[in-house]
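fwd from M.: "can u put these together and see what the complex looks like"

so here's what she sent:
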Amino acid sequence: MTTEEHILNEARDIFYRKGLAGTRMQEIADKAGINKAMLHYYFKTKELLFNRIFEQAFAVFAERVAEVLKSDVPLEQKIVDYVNHTVDALAETPGIPVFVLNELTFNPERITDLFAGKNKIDISYFKDQVDNQTHGKTDANNLFMDMVALCVYPFVIAPVFKRMLQQSDQQYKTLLQERKAHIINELLKRL
Amino acid sequence: MTTEEHILNEARDIFYRKGLAGTRMQEIADKAGINKAMLHYYFKTKELLFNRIFEQAFAVFAERVAEVLKSDVPLEQKIVDYVNHTVDALAETPGIPVFVLNELTFNPERITDLFAGKNKIDISYFKDQVDNQTHGKTDANNLFMDMVALCVYPFVIAPVFKRMLQQSDQQYKTLLQERKAHIINELLKRL
DNA sequence: TTATTAACTAACCAGTTGGTTAATAATTAA
DNA sequence: TTAATTATTAACCAACTGGTTAGTTAATAA
């Protein structure tokens, strides 16, 4: 692993937990076991280092969503794939959603860039697919929003749900895995 | 309006948009049109001022949820009330969810305090109610999580959904209002 | 009126923070 | 081998930040 990758890994961990403003360059340097000057040597500024981390994190979401909206598989399969892939991905790095949401809130101008050019994502193809298949019975916007909400929110609010549902870390993890089938079941009912 | 309330209002606006670490005491003072020393005169430290704002914000969620879990009305009515009240409350102050999620992520120890003593929230009564009424057909944990997720997440991710669904601010607002009926409809189907 | 308390301000301060610099070590190319 | 480039460090710095202080004005109580 190169020094650059090593820095990125430590920086990611800290940025995920403390955000841009709450993170200290010195802390990243310490965790990475290097001199603070090295951070600037490799990444110029704090913001540029943060951008690298953020873009990686955002891609996790964007890729899944883009796939659902564009790919040519049957609707049922799309939903099954989205739920399974998204929940599995978030189970690996549960800190991602809040990190991304946070940055988009603190720095809303970023959204314009994220959805520019080739990353332009729109729902129209998915919408047509839903309309054709359900003959207008199911609203595509709500189906899409529900699908994402049901998958992502339990990760976002994990500490609170864990408490309210009185689940240990391990129990909650299991619960989220079993939830995949529940979400798929509920969504497919509507088609 | 007292100076204290005035400070709280300006501080809330800035904390919601920038978080604890990203907010400067000087900026709050400027927006409130007072001297920075006044902030410390009224609230002692930045953290104490932040706590006041946070506790207010968290109460918005906690109250709705506590009501659902404890109150003695029929299940159907509970769900209708929760969805309507929650969406209406968030429509007024859409910045709240990310603000709260953020702080809970950056400062997880806080959760212990929030659910201590009289604020202790547990789902067991709600669970019994669901079990009795559906004879085990519907899982109470998932019903509860779905209910919250479907209401709150569209506010949390608003800027992204707005882009992907190609909705103006006004259109998205309307969409969220109309969504209330959709959410209620989907949830009641399961009972 | 006057003494006391509350509200408010300008100037200041010590600690922190992102970032720089000048010098050195390690690697690579000639 | 040697010249040149890359990687790394210790020390430093200017700007910023939360918080304080000493003093002033406004309101309240005696």
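replying to her w this: Residues 3, 34-38, 41-42 of chain B lie near DNA strand C (CB under 10 Å from a C1').
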